[in-house]
């Protein structure tokens, strides 16, 4: 068993990276290239790939800081639902916040009892203040309406796990972006007659960022293959840590420039905060990791082939 990318997987990764290199494209372009139908069977108009390939694609989306309801729309497509969807976990405490609500066709509500599909128009909600300007939030103020669809327990378990690992892939891509941006700026910005990257303090920051990002990437890849709930929880924890700490360190490397609207560095930290709370927060991931360590490896309804990744 090995985890090297196949030629097809590398082509998928390279193709998406080229598409996204100039920033996030229009939503229709993402639909046209099949980002949300990678795991839909070919007979149903999809690409017919697996979760590992979807993780590679979402890693590139995270690297490019693509906004929008990415995870929910991909999951909805695997359930046969068309249009935009957001996957939202009911919080143990605090308000229920739904990103991008006016643009959605479906809301996938994740909770301890399973997964339900709601009509966005049936939710009583009002705009809420959002940290990330590209992730607008709506606060659900009224009682939850009757669901349009309730997923059976095995499907609900799979969807919840896949939502977590796809969000972790976004964070892994974002973490890699923070490393690249910090290193590039450290090579260009000069102080005392030399690039700031020549100073050991800056080198250590960048090296630590790279170590966290690579560890997160490997953990996310492994979780996508194994489908183990504990590994998925651990991968999300590592990816969140790499993204949030990486964005903070990237800000420090950029100095005062990093806090300005002229630079995009602050958007990295804001998006990392948003994705950190998406689908599975720190407490839930810690619970999943602890359960996985206590129970040992188990069969899982998610995951792909372990032959390649």
Automatic annotation (TrEMBL):
Keywords: FAD, Flavoprotein, Oxidoreductase
Gene3D superfamilies named in the record: Acyl-CoA dehydrogenase/oxidase, N-terminal domain (1.10.540.10), Butyryl-CoA Dehydrogenase, subunit A, domain 3 (1.20.140.10)
Cofactor: FAD
Record flagged with keyword Oxidoreductase: yes
SUPFAM superfamilies found in the cross-reference section: Acyl-CoA dehydrogenase C-terminal domain-like (SSF47203), Acyl-CoA dehydrogenase NM domain-like (SSF56645)
InterPro entries for the chain: AcylCo_DH-like_C, AcylCo_DH/oxidase_C, AcylCoA_DH/ox_N, AcylCoA_DH/ox_N_sf, AcylCoA_DH/oxidase_NM_dom_sf
UniProt keyword Cell membrane present: no
Single annotated GO MF: flavin adenine dinucleotide binding
Residues covered by the Acyl-CoA dehydrogenase/oxidase C-terminal domain: 166-272
Domain Acyl-CoA dehydrogenase/oxidase N-terminal: 26-77
Stated family: Belongs to the acyl-CoA dehydrogenase family.
Protein's name according to its UniProt entry: Acyl-CoA dehydrogenase
């Amino acid at each position: 068993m090995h985890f090297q990318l196949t030629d097809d997987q590398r082509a998928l990764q390279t193709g998406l990276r080229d598409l996204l290199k100039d920033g996030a494209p229009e939503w229709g372009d993402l639909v046209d290239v099949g980002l949300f139908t990678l795991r839909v069977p070919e007979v149903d108009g999809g690409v017919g790939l697996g979760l590992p390939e979807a993780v590679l694609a979402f890693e590139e989306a995270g690297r490019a800081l693509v906004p929008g309801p990415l995870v929910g729309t991909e999951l909805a497509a695997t359930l046969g639902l068309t249009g935009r969807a957001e996957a939202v976990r009911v919080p143990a405490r605090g308000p229920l916040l739904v990103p991008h609500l006016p643009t959605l066709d479906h809301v996938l509500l994740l909770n301890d009892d399973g997964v339900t599909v709601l009509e966005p128009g049936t939710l009583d909600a009002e705009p809420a203040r959002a940290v990330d300007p590209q992730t607008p939030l709506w606060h659900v103020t009224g009682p939850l309406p009757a669901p349009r669809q309730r997923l059976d327990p095995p499907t609900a378990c799979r969807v919840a796990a896949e939502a977590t690992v796809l969000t972790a892939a976004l964070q892994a891509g974002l973490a890699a972006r923070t490393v690249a941006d910090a290193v590039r700026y450290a090579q260009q910005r000069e102080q005392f007659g030399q690039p700031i990257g020549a100073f050991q303090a800056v080198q250590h920051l960048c090296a630590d960022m790279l170590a966290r990002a690579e560890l997160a990437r490997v953990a996310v890849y492994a979780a996508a293959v194994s489908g183990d709930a504990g590994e998925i929880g651990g991968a999300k924890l590592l990816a969140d840590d790499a993204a949030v700490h990486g964005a903070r360190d990237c800000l420090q490397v950029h100095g005062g420039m990093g806090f300005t609207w002229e630079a995009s560095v602050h958007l990295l930290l804001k998006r990392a905060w948003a994705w950190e709370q998406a689908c599975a927060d720190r407490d839930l991931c810690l619970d999943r990791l602890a359960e996985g360590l206590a129970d040992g490896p188990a069969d899982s309804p998610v995951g792909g082939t372990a032959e390649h990744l």
